[in-house]
Fold these 3 entries.
Entry 1:
Amino acid sequence: MVDPESVVARLARLAELLLALDRVRDAGIDAYLADADLRAATERRLQLTIQACVDVGAHLVSELNLEPAADYGGVFHSLARAGIVDAELSVRLASAAGQRRLLVHDYLAIDDRRVF
């Protein structure tokens, strides 16, 4: 059973993270590339943003008894097949889940321009 408070908390945190990422984007790529601390903070915020989306999506998949996902990207495909999210959005979110994997596990291969 989905804990509504947990979902609401994740969505609230998601909103905060997105605002912080917007500020980085608004400052421009030159500022981003010039500041190692900003890049590290942005990578962490991006990781948390994607994780919040995965968590909320997984709650929905479970609560609605949708087809279980084999991986994080699959959560969004399951939601798309059920008509919960647009198919194009599910592809973008699944791609983001792949980016999360890079940030967490393959951090030596991070492309700063792609993150930006």
Note: The chain has one domain: 4-115.
Entry 2:
Amino acid sequence: MIKEFRDFLMRGNLVELAVAFVMGLAFAALITSFVDNLVMPIVAMIIGKPDFSDLTFTINDAVFRYGAFITAAITFLATAAAIFFFVVKPMNALTARMTKPEEEALPDEERRHQELLAVIRESGR
């Protein structure tokens, strides 16, 4: 039973997955801090306040906290923008620089000519 448990733990890339999970949590904390401490003050500067949680309305003693939703939506959009512009775009640019440029695709007619020349060369041997 212990051997089966050990085999389960060593199966696949469990250690790599655990490391990726921990790194993901640390990265999420970094992005959250960036949004909360740098982006939301800019929102507050433009709109007037960074937190809309106090915006509510009441119907039949039910309190609707639509301000909390607005704050969550702005935070989500700011987080998505931060990840896109500071992680995804730079990584795409880096990947594009690192990859070798692919050979330009030949037009169909040129490709057919090359194939025919290859067949003619083969038959001449």
Note: Residues 2-124 form a domain with the Non-ribosomal Peptide Synthetase Peptidyl Carrier Protein; Chain A fold (CATH 1.10.1200.120).
Entry 3:
Amino acid sequence: MNCPRIANYPLAALWLGSLLAGQLASAADWTRFQDLKATAAGVALPTTDWSPTENQLWSTEIHGYGQSSPVTWHGRVFVTSISGPNKEHCHISSYDLKNGEKQWQVDVDSATQAENTNYISRGAPTPVVDAEGLYCFFEGGNLLSLTHDGKPRWERNLVEEFGKIGARHGLSASLEQNDDQLFVWVERESDPYVLSVDKATGKDVWKVPGVGATSWASPRLLPVDGGQHLILSAVGSITGLDPATGQTLWKLEGISGNSSPTPVPAGPNRFLIGATVGRGESDNGKAADSNGLARVQKNDDGTYQAEYVWRAKRATSSFGSPMAYQGMAYFVNATGVLYGLDLETGEERFSQRLADSMWATPIPVGDRILFCGKGGTVSVIASGPEFSKIAENATWPVEATEAPAEPQGRGRGGFGGPVLYAGALADNRLLFRRGDRLYCVGQAGE
């Protein structure tokens, strides 16, 4: 196999990686897509107000372009990206959380080349990190693990093993993990599959067929009856798998518009479903019928079934997933309207327009919730049944335009401009990722 290579960047203080490798994740770490453990009640925001010139601790350029979320481990920030006219190169970079200094970069030849355009996913799957290292997946079929200081652990080429990856608009499913396994979802047009991989060795634990429907959502582990189910959302249905074996445990059908939002756990046995209004559809009420709260129940014979607890009347989603927090469910639609619904009953408590629609999942912190508008403006509201806007903050200047180093095919940025793809909270700092830059917000001196 081809080992990754580390680009020529200063490796100052990289000995910390081996020192920290045996430590457990803390609430200060953001270790995966939608890692909300760091946002528990009682945690305070580092600041509610910032701008390109106020409370922005640093920003740094990312090599190439990517749509994944940053992940962190004990003062390190890891991001993935791609570059080249045909996405020939995959990149994994590490930055110092305190000052944004680049610590190392690993470059890997892509297992699949495809035109570098905003119509196809570009470095979209978010990696995961744990005490042993970093695990990365690229839409071209590269799956690999590195130590915290960028040294190779194992690497696989899923195209060589399981055939080419062809998916409309590409793959964007992020990795999911438990203590011992990685979960990789390749929902391609032909012969889709779900793969469980041993984190220590990179070898298969199990491989089962995928859903067989369009999806850009990510697999998510849901706590169920003291254990966990792996849930997959693809157009028309949501499926629950046994993480230990890959066996299908239940399937909730009759859903529409659920190709992009990832189901979000809302407590044991329950999850929120996000769904979007399709092109040319004007009946938001019909689309809202697929947005709602579902629960998984165990039958007397030991089997499981899933069903809706309630369905929304008006609320719909966009690319971003909904959020359950402190007794409320939050949905942001394609025009930037935020709907706040009672989590138990689905009763609509308010609807208010935010600065923009969202590609990112909301971030709840203490008694505040951050809504990361795709154009870079982050709205901060108070959690609860009444709408109260605390602040509205621009992450980069409004007139900013991306200037990627590599050609971007038929378009660049997010259909006309830079896009805020993800936000994260780590060690009392906020991180925001757009295609070509990483931003860090907080109070100076902390």
Note: The first strand starts at residue 5 and ends at 6.
